[in-house]
């Protein structure tokens, strides 16, 4: 079974995007689509990294655990809110921390906003950062508008049928890229 890590990138108090991370984890587990863990950046309490992990003289255990979780994942889902047209500094911090761990890693993006545009302005800048370090950003997205009305605090969708239909296509695309990468590595 494939290992999928979900990065919940917001560290703000009262964040709503974590609801989507919980939903995705529940969906993947309920449909037996992989071994899933959430990397919640709000619980990591990372410093602002001044250098890539490989150049840090004595990295702490939490940083090493984060790097291992990214390395060991067959695929990653990043759940990010949009803050003023960009993604959170907490996410940029951990993207820039690693390099080889992201290389050719299939990554799916879920953008979240409290407004009607579903975080659409953050996609380009996040994709570009991930492409620059060699990640395989999949073409499917899972944008979530009006997140406070769309998901409850436990990650349950208010309208399950269309939400499950949209997420099924999103996850199907991620799994296809994970399997394609695995075949490439074997061949």
TrEMBL record:
It comes from the Bacteria. InterPro entries: Flavoprotein-like_sf, FMN_Rdtase-like_dom, NAD(P)H-dep_reductase. GO terms for cellular component: cytosol. GO terms for molecular function: FMN binding; oxidoreductase activity. Residues 4-144 form the NADPH-dependent FMN reductase-like domain. This is NAD(P)H-dependent FMN reductase. The lineage of its organism: Bacteria, Pseudomonadati, Bacteroidota, Sphingobacteriia, Sphingobacteriales.
């Amino acid at each position: 079974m494939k290992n999928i890590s979900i990065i919940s990138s917001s560290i703000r108090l009262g964040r709503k995007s974590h609801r989507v991370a919980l939903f995705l984890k529940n969906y993947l587990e309920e449909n037996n689509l992989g071994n899933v863990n959430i990397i919640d950046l709000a619980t990591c309490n990372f410093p602002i990294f001044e250098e890539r992990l490989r150049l840090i003289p004595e990295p702490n255990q939490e940083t090493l655990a984060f790097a291992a979780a990214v390395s060991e994942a067959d695929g990653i889902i990043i759940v990010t809110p949009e803050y003023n047209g960009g993604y959170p500094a907490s996410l940029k911090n951990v993207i820039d921390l690693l390099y080889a761990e992201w290389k050719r890693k299939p990554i799916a993006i879920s953008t979240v906003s409290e407004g009607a545009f579903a975080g659409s302005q953050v996609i380009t800048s996040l994709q570009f950062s991930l492409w620059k370090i060699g990640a395989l950003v999949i073409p499917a997205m899972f944008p979530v508008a009006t997140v406070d009305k769309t998901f409850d605090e436990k990650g349950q969708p208010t309208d399950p049928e269309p939400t499950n239909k949209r997420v099924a296509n999103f996850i199907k695309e991620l799994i296809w890229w994970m399997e394609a990468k695995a075949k490439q590595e074997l061949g």
